[in-house]
Amino acid sequence: MVVMDWDREQRTGVAEAVLAANKSPAQLETIVGAAIDKGRRLLLTRLDAEVFSALDVKTRAALDYDAISRTAFAGGIVPLKATGVGIVAAGTSDVAAALEASRTLAFAGHEAPVIADVGVAGLWRLIERRDELVRFRIVIAVAGMEGALFSVVAGLVPAPVIAVPTSVGYGVAEGGAAALHAALASCAPGVTVVNIDNGFGAATAALKMLRLA
Amino acid sequence: MVVMDWDREQRTGVAEAVLAANKSPAQLETIVGAAIDKGRRLLLTRLDAEVFSALDVKTRAALDYDAISRTAFAGGIVPLKATGVGIVAAGTSDVAAALEASRTLAFAGHEAPVIADVGVAGLWRLIERRDELVRFRIVIAVAGMEGALFSVVAGLVPAPVIAVPTSVGYGVAEGGAAALHAALASCAPGVTVVNIDNGFGAATAALKMLRLA
Amino acid sequence: MVVMDWDREQRTGVAEAVLAANKSPAQLETIVGAAIDKGRRLLLTRLDAEVFSALDVKTRAALDYDAISRTAFAGGIVPLKATGVGIVAAGTSDVAAALEASRTLAFAGHEAPVIADVGVAGLWRLIERRDELVRFRIVIAVAGMEGALFSVVAGLVPAPVIAVPTSVGYGVAEGGAAALHAALASCAPGVTVVNIDNGFGAATAALKMLRLA
Amino acid sequence: MVVMDWDREQRTGVAEAVLAANKSPAQLETIVGAAIDKGRRLLLTRLDAEVFSALDVKTRAALDYDAISRTAFAGGIVPLKATGVGIVAAGTSDVAAALEASRTLAFAGHEAPVIADVGVAGLWRLIERRDELVRFRIVIAVAGMEGALFSVVAGLVPAPVIAVPTSVGYGVAEGGAAALHAALASCAPGVTVVNIDNGFGAATAALKMLRLA
Amino acid sequence: MVVMDWDREQRTGVAEAVLAANKSPAQLETIVGAAIDKGRRLLLTRLDAEVFSALDVKTRAALDYDAISRTAFAGGIVPLKATGVGIVAAGTSDVAAALEASRTLAFAGHEAPVIADVGVAGLWRLIERRDELVRFRIVIAVAGMEGALFSVVAGLVPAPVIAVPTSVGYGVAEGGAAALHAALASCAPGVTVVNIDNGFGAATAALKMLRLA
Amino acid sequence: MVVMDWDREQRTGVAEAVLAANKSPAQLETIVGAAIDKGRRLLLTRLDAEVFSALDVKTRAALDYDAISRTAFAGGIVPLKATGVGIVAAGTSDVAAALEASRTLAFAGHEAPVIADVGVAGLWRLIERRDELVRFRIVIAVAGMEGALFSVVAGLVPAPVIAVPTSVGYGVAEGGAAALHAALASCAPGVTVVNIDNGFGAATAALKMLRLA
Amino acid sequence: MVVMDWDREQRTGVAEAVLAANKSPAQLETIVGAAIDKGRRLLLTRLDAEVFSALDVKTRAALDYDAISRTAFAGGIVPLKATGVGIVAAGTSDVAAALEASRTLAFAGHEAPVIADVGVAGLWRLIERRDELVRFRIVIAVAGMEGALFSVVAGLVPAPVIAVPTSVGYGVAEGGAAALHAALASCAPGVTVVNIDNGFGAATAALKMLRLA
Amino acid sequence: MVVMDWDREQRTGVAEAVLAANKSPAQLETIVGAAIDKGRRLLLTRLDAEVFSALDVKTRAALDYDAISRTAFAGGIVPLKATGVGIVAAGTSDVAAALEASRTLAFAGHEAPVIADVGVAGLWRLIERRDELVRFRIVIAVAGMEGALFSVVAGLVPAPVIAVPTSVGYGVAEGGAAALHAALASCAPGVTVVNIDNGFGAATAALKMLRLA
């Protein structure tokens, strides 16, 4: 049996989310059903399209599902407000993690645009958008491979930068450790880091920071 | 020759600091002298006591030096305000990194108390201080060994938690990788992480977050 | 040909168990048949559901199989006695390893309840059950991700704590090394550790400890 | 300031010990003085001979110090009883960790003999002492290099075996990871493991197990 | 095009063998056809059963194939002589690598018996066969998990011991690194080591040693 | 006895250099003496200042020594020509490796300026010098920490970029692996990489490339 | 949406290529269509045969596809000139990476022959072709396993050697790290290295070097 | 107390040797004294010059000490016979391990010449001595850095090749893992490997092989 922590939001400022990976369709149906019965909203992450398809009709109907970010909302959506969080993704392959962050913020009512394909090898594409970037109050930067984006962005903007290394890459970059270490070792101060591919974690950190405002 | 980035504060929100490790006394004397001549304040980190002792009299007199945190201020101190940053350190050996964070915040005018010896093995010591912890707007958590403190603190407080893993420990904990991985893999959402022993980085991230308020 | 060590129990206090992984259905049928012919009981571990399904009817009929823990008993079950072993699992995904431990103990006649979903991020769920936990004479703690549960439980209970790190997790936690290192580096003394996902090993260690009583 | 957890013994079954490594002589003098003032006994571990020599006369006089195990007792010794814990060390270089375990047990009143130089390369030396080994109720096995001792001992005795890998060795064995992995991967069930060089941890685990009797 | 080194045997004492892994059926058919045309014998290793099945009828008919060891002989077999090489395998799962060694030796005319299931956890099974073991002139020892077999065997027999670590195992033993490190760090002198799962390499080393006789 | 490969230059395009690390003063005196007797020029690398000081007077007089790059020339210097190699170093601590490259090029008659303190955190310092950078025909980029410089420079200039990761850094960057992986995983194509701290290797690669012109 | 960097060639000397891995057929069809509409040539790498087959007819017709190297050209081919780049591959399994390099060079109009099966174990095969090798102006060396080829080739030829380690191999060589480290640690100066399996990167580096001529 | 295994030679074919590292002068004096009293010869390895100097006069007089190989013989030397073992060392820094092997063989009466400075970067130096190399019955190859020597030598000679990787090197080669992996992954069959810097182990393996003759 899965025991939900329905009071987590009050205690820690972040509503409980359910990591769908490693859970069976039956377990997920129970969890979603309980949330709906209690009249609570719920965020599911790492919900693969095949698992979503395997859920019963009633559960699927109750979910707002997005396949690229592998996220689902139970209990409806809320209106979005632009509160200053921007998400920057180095390459096409980093978009999944970027959208996981964006959807997590959207679940909580925050609109966070994703600026993609601004990798460092095409530095001008990034610098051309500098005026846009400096207006963000919080920046989530998402990159795999060598992770140079983290240092470059943090050198350009005054906002806190939350780095999401991704597992995109091959050879020494396989699994994301190279990007993770680049984020942690960044010579640009003020960068903080979450686990590899953890767009959800970056978004919840951003939510906590927004409460400071 | 060392080229200073005197305008970094304006561009990125964080004044340039000088990593004193790997710099000779002569280089440090030049940098400090230049800061004073320009009427600028400067923070030095990782300034070992032996290197400080090797500086010339004039430079030493110009610095406010703290041996435990290995930090020095050039250009004088500023009055401190309590702005809601709290620092929690698991054990006695984690205090050096905690004080590096505290001094970096103090350099920028923020008073950040250090609560030490609240490791998880003595969980009650931590829980007893919960009322104090929940009042912080930002928490910097500092721990080596197995780094369980990060998850426990993030499960207790609503504030953003910045984790500083330390290199304290032996065997599998040597060098700090165990604590680093614990911080990144924390099951408590909203934790962000900086490099091992990087109290300075945690403080600069906190400074960027405080600008949100 | 597989050579069984039928006298191991007498010599080492633990009956031989068969690691079914990497063995063919034919090999397993032979081993189970031999045990039944000799009138001996036998525990099989890591017996995947597909392999169990591929066994011949006679062998399947001779086995008490549990799919989640991937364990099977040949030679019947024995009545269970509550002898004070408790199993604590951090999350839903840790239950498989927890049940491997529980079934191994049950094979030997010991009833060991599994308390699940008491991860550290919801610290109160764990603390609320403290009265229950302190009554156990031996605690097996099962956790993946950052493994903070090991230190927290060992800080709460006087019993020996046997830590089972699990391979649950992603990024730096993938494969279980982060949880393993957290267990080994625990600042709470008295924790001992077994290999990743080794619920069987934890249970056999508990069996040896119970002989001390 | 160091905050002691004087009530840990009552709560977890193990008295607080002080890891002297990374503490200054002044800090240690304060801690020892406080223990004596409160009339409490205290165990110090990892107290190097040079640091012991640097303590003031009063503190040194208050301590029962052993240089090989780097342990010290404050508050006097207690009479020893033979309660069935045996310690087996593979080579000469493993004796320091073995004695750390023995002294920790002695601090708590348990006599635990150390059987040294019974490495696996001279298997007969070990087998010749089998009658002695099988009489122990708990065995602490200490080995570096390839750590074959753990499996061999656990295959010989019915008692729980607590493995202490040591950092003795060079090349692939440097730092103790090879011995640690050998202990964790042991094909002999019932072995539990503590961190590299952690004789203290093995002894505290043994103390918790002895409470089962 | 694959360029064969038909003269390798004369130059280095070992006939060329073909690593079938990563080669297409068409490439293998060409290589085997060329060997037969030239009237040469050829050993193929790592030839999976599916790939063997995908070869054309003529090639399959020309090969003496063994599925467990994944080896095939082209050009016929030679009469076997007992020349004193023995192979010892710790567990059932190590038999594949042991048979790769045995078949490689058989290809060259040497009979090498495989003694299986003599792991260290059942030490007596190994010691009972000591008289048999000491008669071997060369011993190939095959083990995964913690690899304690290497040290134990080398402590029992006067012959050179060639260790083949295997990738059998899970957790810290996954992939074979734990067994490899145990072999290299063995405290029993005179052990030499080959790559993980490299039964072929161990056999070719034994062939070179036999030329010394 | 050290056997010199005096004909290497003719065969491979690069004169033999002597790695002074791990050689005794006596060995170095012999090597330098032999070079002078044969009328050959010789480059020594990794010659620490203490070892240089320990050489006899005659040898020291025969050497053109530079302490920061730890290089020495025997047999005199040659006039320098500007041939288009530029060296870019991220921080003050990277200058040693940068100068090892510059001196190696100078030994062969090429003038290679070092542009230092152009790290990515101060991106404008780097971009301001872009006109200077694009004129180089070959760029050697030297950086430790997170190594973002490699990708940024390779995104700015058309020349081949040879990356020299340095061991500067702490935590995850300690020893240089983070910078090495960043260089290898760079998303900017056309970057090639040498070993950590290997300024000499980068320079010899540049020399080989210059022969193409 | 994928943002192409159509001006990269002018700025950095290398035309943009598209890493097809992790991109959907629909994304690839859009990219190829845009290139054709703009009248631009485009190189696709890591385009698996299954993904190529899944493209629509029009896109497939527009591409010159090679399955072994997994590369495709859009916008037609250009006449090839022999400009002195040679590619040397140690074994059959290294040919895929070698052909990725060769095709990348062909896309840019350079003919680069691949010399395969010249591994070090058959040293004479390599030495016999020395006259051919020394005529190359740039050598790309491709090898997995232990990567001895890199040092041997660099000891034979005066040209710059670009090493491409491959992920071919098992045990300690799995994934290519052993070959990568051999390339970086090569005692033959003048070797530069690219990421594991990165034939494309080696070719683009060669293209940059050819501009020096 | 150190327990010697005086009968090891009879049982395993190799006399016991004493690893002097980590033993105190007093311990070594006792061991050497006991050997002399019993009229036995004894080999000491890893005996640093400073430790040798710290031994008492009587012990030093009883030892035949060699500082480069850090070995000492107690009980006199024996006449040497040339029995066909050759030792090949890649560079000057590999000579210490090569001499440890040579001295171990000399202790047992075998003369084993060391051929030094035949690294692969100067391939001709090695090939020029091929006639000499092919006459050896057993070859011990010693190399650090990238370890290409192992494959090259094994491709040239018909004898068994025992590889001794050394810890010589920096960057990715630091500590010897790159050379170790090169030895294990060698594409030249028949190479066996010992631990990093373990010249003693290679020699004892050679001694066991010589008994085959």
Describe the structure.
The structure is a homooctamer of 213-residue chains. By secondary structure, chain A is of the alpha/beta class. Chain A folds into two domains: 8-74; 81-212, Rossmann fold. Helix content of chain A is 38%, strand content 19%. The first copy, chain A, has ten helices and eleven strands. The first copy, chain A, has helices spanning 8-12, 25-37, 49-54, 57-62, 95-107, 123-127, 130-134, 148-156, 177-184, 199-210; strands at 17-19, 42-45, 63-66, 71-74, 81-82, 85-89, 110-111, 114-115, 138-143, 161-165, 191-193. A five-stranded parallel beta sheet of chain A has the order 8-6-9-10-11, with helices on both faces. In chain A, strands 1-2-4-3 form a four-stranded mixed beta sheet. In chain A, strands 5-7 form a two-stranded parallel sheet. In chain A, α9 links the parallel β10 (161-165) and β11 (191-193). In chain A, α5 (95-107) runs parallel beside α10. The longest helix of chain A has 13 residues, at 25-37. The model of chain A has no long low-confidence stretch (mean pLDDT 91). Chains A and C meet through loops of A and loops of C.
Write a concise synopsis of the structure shown.
The structure is a homooctamer of 213-residue chains. Chain A is α/β, with parallel strands linked by helices and 213 residues long.
